[in-house]
Amino acid sequence: MPAKTVNDIVALCKRRGFIFTGSEIYGGLGGAYDYGPYGVELMKNIRNAWWNAMIYSRDDIEGLDAALISNRLLWKYSGHEAGFSDPLVECKKCGARMRQDKMRDPSKCDNCGSTEITEPRAYQLMMGLSIGATADGAINAYLRPETATTTYTNFKNVLDAKPHKLPFGIAQIGKAFRNEISPRGFVFRMREFEQAEMQYFVNPSDDEKFHKMWMETRMAWWVNALGIPAEKLRFLPHEKLAHYAKAAVDIEYAFPDGFDEVEGIHNRQDFDLGSHTKAQSEFKINANVLENRDSTTKLSYSDPQTGENFIPYVIETAMGANRAMLAVMIEAYNEEDLGDGKSRVVLKLKPKLSPVKAAVIPLARNVPELLNISNNIVGDLRKLGIGRIELENSGNIGKNYRRHDEIGTPVCITVDHQTLEDNTVTLRYRDTMAQERVAIADVPKRILEIVNE
Predict the structure, then answer these.
(1) Which residues contact 111 (CB under 8 A, 6 or more apart)?
(2) Which of 16, 68, 144, 415 has minimal CB crowding within 10 Å?
(3) Which residue has the higher pLDDT, 200 or 90?
(4) Architecture (CATH level 2) of domain 354-451
């Protein structure tokens, strides 16, 4: 059974080194978390699964890694500087600040119930920076609040370096920063988070076709790559569209507290390239864009067949990588009753996602022969390049099994006294706890089979 509450995951993350509270020894900082030894591995594997699906499995998408700090003009013309804000209210009685659109009752304080609430005011979500020796504290740059906009401004660079015909896409994974009023849900909503976004550039006449295609493609990825059951996912169309959008749909996962967004698939029309292009008047831009007198580049596409020069439409897929990891952990989490008052917690992750791919355990830590064989097996497995392989040399086999159950290791390899006699080891499988003897020579092949299941 998946985790009943997010608190189950919070406790496991702290106990087993997945996620820690940021700046914890100084009381923490709201909306900031540090990823521990197994958290970085799980997140890396989720990133790799996304990158493999978006880049390595296709010919029509290129990768990008843009700067975190951007020129202020970029965010001016994207509309973020003027419009990227939340409605903030304050309780006059207790001083609590709240997003009005997230309050249980907009007329009452969520904290104390008072009706003495201020009028809403715009709360800027971007984190401004003052950079340079002569900045004098004035904001002249921003930490990016998303990865998408830095993709649009690199459209021409990528197209010139690696020519493509429409449709084609640009994908990137990276950090983004938002000055959230009320971070919540553990790593669900943070001030520093990670996005995996892809911008797919299409002919305006094909936009609806490709929006539907990417809805189907991305939903299938959540099921097949991350192991989320289809019945735990759903599409939720936006009732109210953003000013730039022609269509917008969220993929939602059934978290313990209810369905919530993990990825968006949006038809952004020609708003983004149209906002940042030079010589806007030369193009028929459908979206309502701010007049741009600062851009130095035409972000247009010339059709090699018709000769038409136009601003492509954008179909965007935008996934929260932290939310994906949280959903994966919730779904994989199981508490099992083993009988006789015993139980275990096990993360039944897909092996490709598991932070540790295999653990090698000498049954007795004070027997040099067992440790030498174990080290040799670890060395052979590490040569496979499949991820983290651990040597456990505590000598307590039961505790080692339980620890690796909790971090999701798909198989443990036990080296015991029989190994000295016949060169076999015991493979103990996470999900079933079944065991089998396997020749040492066959272990690498068997581990590869398990990891690629």
Answers:
(1) 91, 94, 96, 98
(2) 68
(3) 200
(4) 3-Layer(aba) Sandwich (3.40)
